[in-house]
Every structure is written in C-alpha cells, then in structure tokens.
C-alpha cells in the first residue's frame, strides 16, 4: 500500500474516532445523555419564604419549586458576603484557600474555576446576571456571560431570551443570577401591609422598620416572578427533567443577617428539582455547604467529583441519603473598611461556636453607617432611638454593636441564637471541643492572614448626624 493511501486511511480512521468521541462526550458512562443543569441564585435572601415557615411573603413560584423538588433545610454559605460566598461556590474552596476573603475580592487566577470542570465534560457553561460578584464574571471562564453589573434589570430577561434562541446541541449549564432582594428595595410596599406583617426575632418594632420590611418582601416577590419566568423557559426549551438548583448567596441585609455568622446570615434557602431523580415534595436536614455545589454539579453531570477541594458532592443526599456534613465552617472578614469584624464559626447538628477575632472592635456594617444611602441605613437609627427608653430594644442594639470573644449556642433549644452559653460552666466541655475543632480547621486552611480594612470603634450616626461614608459638600 502506498504511503499516501496509508496516510489517508490513518487520517480517516482518526477522524472517525474523533467524531465518535465528540458524539460520546455528552454521554454518561452508562450511555445516557448528560443532564442540562440550571442554577438560579438570589441576592441577599434569607429563609424568608413559605417553605421555611415565613407567613408574610408571596412567592408562589418558589413554593411550587419546593413542591416539585427537595428542600434542603440546612444549606449554608461559606461566607455571608457576596464576593467570597460566590467565589466559594465557583471554586469549591473556602475563602482562605481561594483568596477571596474580603468582599469585592476575586479568587486567585491560579485557582481552577467551576466552568472548566464542566467544560471538560462537554458542557457549554454560561452566566447571566449576578452570578459571581459584579464585573468579575469574565475571569471565571464562562463560555458566555451578560449583565453582571449592579441591579441590572436585564440580567434574568437576557438569560430567557438567550435560552430560547439557543441552537447548540451540547449539554448546557446555565447560571441565572437575580439582584433581588438586594437593596435598594422597591419604593413602595406593593400590596404588603406593614402593620400586618410578622417581624423576625432580634428586630426592633418601629414604623419605619415595618415599612422597610414590607418593601423587602416586595423585593422577594419580584425575585419569585423572575424564578417563575425562568422555569417556564427552562421547561419549554430544556424539559422538565432538567436539573434545577435554587439558592441564595447569604442571608438578608438585616441586622444579624448578612455579614454575620449566625444562621440568619449563613443558612440559605436551597431547593433542587430534578424530574425522575429527586423525589418531589421531600425535605432533608442534611447539612451542606455552598462549596459542595461545584462537586455536586460535576457528580450529577456524570463526572468524578474533584479531589483537593473543600467541597463534597451532596448528590447522595438528593438520592435519599440522610446525612452529609458533620460540621459547617463559615468565615467573615470585611468589605474594604466597612464591615470590618473578622469572625469564624463551626456549626454541628446541635451547636454553634463563633470566635470573634477582634472583640475590641465595634461591629458595624452598611446597615448602621450608611444612614442616607441604603434602605437599611434609613431604619436603623429608629432602633437606637427606641433603645433609649426600651430595655428590650437596647439589648438588641447592644448585641448588634458589641460582641464577646466567644459565642456558643445550643441550636436544639435556642434556634434563634439568643442565649450565649460560652460562659456557662456546664458547657465548658462543648466549648473546648468546638474551639479546638475550629482552630484545627483554620490551621488546615492556612487561615492566618491579617484582615484588611480599618476597624471601627464607634457606633453609627443617628438621624441628623453627619454620615462619615458620604462625601461632604
């Protein structure tokens, strides 16, 4: 046989093998097509939804999603601020290991990102709206992304339009990020009656607070509509057997929520719907972390969960396993020179231990310092005014501003984390054990870098006082 004929034969054979490999790349080892994956992320949403017992909110699409899938009652973020939380999801690594410890920070360039794991399995991986932190999306390696700016109203709509126009036959991973219910909230309560709503624990009941809470719920309802519109498009284009995960990047921007390691800051509403795989109308108390989402998506996609990351696949939980993690670790540092209050936490099934690394600092956030800039800043001074004559209000405000070195909560008997048992001699053994667990974990993480930002030692301004964070005229 002549050399040219042999060469053409080799090329033809190689081409056929390449084509066969390309055709097989969208297959599981068992021969079934890889599922399409949809991840919908809310922004600053706590467990303020009907599936978690909130009687106030109107969110029928999320209630329906819960009925059609599995509710994860104990899902937690890695850090209760936007950038580190999302970086943990998109790397499978905790903040100290991926480099995004403070808010606004991006993970290191050398850290492998979520899209590449799924692209290696033959997926097209795209993002619309706030998926990573604002204007950081490009660095994560998505095949396509749009509208990653602050409160961009076209983010979710662009995802729906893109999905309906898509021609590719590759398996798809689409991330859709809403900006709701991040502040600023709607200017009106949009049908919510401030006088009729039930306020959450650790809230000072003032008229301006009730108005703000009602507008927060109006923002949640806007999120719910975006979820419904997205799922309608997903069901129409990709089919109802598509894997859908809904979650939020951390708790709501309320005192003791966002920027805190209490459950109201780190425990987030999470639902998975996957027709034919996840039993509808089920709930699980298995503890999972946002760093677990990356390996779970890889697992569901038919790949092998990556080694060397902090995340662990919770796909077994979706198939009915009762347990996942024994402990949940969370961290918070700062947001520039706002929210400078480093803290670390370990949570077990029953106990929560928080180490406030600099208890000499005054805990402050956007909530109490930006009086004229954001919604929460407008109501918090009313809490301080109420605290002047109301001991209960004073206790709440003092607990906001001033934290002890250690906090210990018995979550079985005190789920709202109101009674700090760190000084209770009867719990000395529990305190010692959790303190040691957290210290060992921090060592394993290399969590020893100094915190950036300038700490605060004064409480925020009251009405009529100058706001130091606003430019002077």
From TrEMBL:
Check the record and name the Pfam families matching this protein.
Sulfatase
InterPro entries, per this entry?
Alkaline_phosphatase_core_sf, Sulfatase, Sulfatase_N
SUPFAM superfamilies referenced in this protein's UniProt entry, alphabetically: Alkaline phosphatase-like (SSF53649)
Q: Which UniProt keywords apply?
A: Hydrolase, Signal
Provide the Sulfatase N-terminal domain boundaries.
Answer: 35-302
Signal peptide positions (record): 1-22
Q: Where are the annotated coiled coils located?
A: none
Q: Which domain of life is it from?
A: Bacteria
Q: Return the similarity comment.
A: Belongs to the sulfatase family.
- Check the record and name the PANTHER family matching this protein: ARYLSULFATASE FAMILY MEMBER, ENDO-4-O-SULFATASE
Protein name (Swiss-Prot/TrEMBL): Sulfatase
């Amino acid at each position: 046989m002549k050399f040219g004929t042999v060469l053409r034969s080799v090329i033809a054979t190689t081409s056929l093998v390449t084509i066969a490999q390309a055709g097989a790349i969208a297959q599981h080892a068992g021969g079934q097509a890889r599922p399409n994956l949809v991840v919908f992320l809310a922004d600053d949403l706590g467990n303020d939804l009907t599936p978690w017992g909130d009687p106030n909110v109107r969110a029928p699409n999320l209630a329906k999603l819960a009925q059609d899938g599995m509710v994860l009652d104990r899902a937690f973020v890695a850090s209760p601020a936007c950038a580190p939380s999302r970086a943990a999801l998109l790397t499978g690594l905790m903040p100290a290991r991926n480099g995004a410890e403070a808010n606004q920070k991006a993970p290191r360039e050398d850290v492998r990102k979520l899209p590449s794991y799924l692209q290696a399995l033959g997926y097209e991986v795209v993002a619309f709206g706030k998926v990573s932190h604002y204007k950081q999306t490009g660095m994560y390696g998505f095949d396509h992304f749009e509208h990653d700016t602050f409160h961009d109203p076209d983010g979710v709509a662009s995802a729906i339009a893109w999905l309906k126009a898509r021609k590719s036959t590759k398996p798809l991973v689409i991330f859709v990020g809403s900006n709701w219910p991040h502040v600023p909230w709607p200017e009106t309560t949009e049908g919510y009656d401030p006088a009729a709503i039930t306020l959450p624990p650790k809230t000072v009941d003032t008229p301006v607070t009730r108005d703000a809470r009602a507008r927060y719920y109006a923002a949640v309802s806007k999120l719910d509509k975006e979820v419904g519109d997205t799922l309608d498009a997903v069901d129409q284009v990709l089919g109802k057997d598509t894997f859908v995960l809904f979650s939020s990047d951390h708790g709501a921007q309320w005192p003791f929520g966002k920027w805190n390691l209490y459950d109201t800051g780190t425990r987030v509403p999470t639902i998975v719907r996957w027709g034919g795989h996840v039993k509808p109308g089920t709930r699980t108390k298995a503890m999972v972390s946002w760093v677990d989402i990356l390996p779970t998506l890889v697992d569901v996609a038919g790949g092998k969960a990556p080694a060397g990351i902090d995340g662990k696949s919770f796909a077994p939980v979706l198939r009915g396993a009762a347990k996942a993690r024994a402990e949940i670790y969370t961290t918070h540092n700062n947001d520039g020179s706002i929210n400078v209050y480093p803290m670390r936490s370990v949570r077990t099934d029953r106990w929560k231990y928080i180490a406030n690394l600099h208890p000499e600092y005054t805990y402050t956030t956007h909530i109490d310092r930006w009086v004229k800039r954001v919604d929460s800043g407008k109501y918090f001074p009313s809490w301080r005014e109420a605290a002047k004559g109301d001991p209960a209000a004073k206790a709440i405000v003092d607990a906001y501003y001033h934290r002890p070195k250690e906090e210990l909560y018995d979550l079985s008997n005190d789920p709202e984390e109101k009674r700090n048992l760190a000084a209770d001699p009867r719990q000395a053994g529990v305190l010692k054990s959790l303190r040691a667990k957290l210290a060992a974990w921090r060592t394993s993480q290399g969590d020893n870098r100094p915190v950036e930002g300038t700490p605060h030692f004064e409480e925020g301004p009251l009405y009529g006082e100058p706001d130091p964070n606003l430019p002077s005229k």
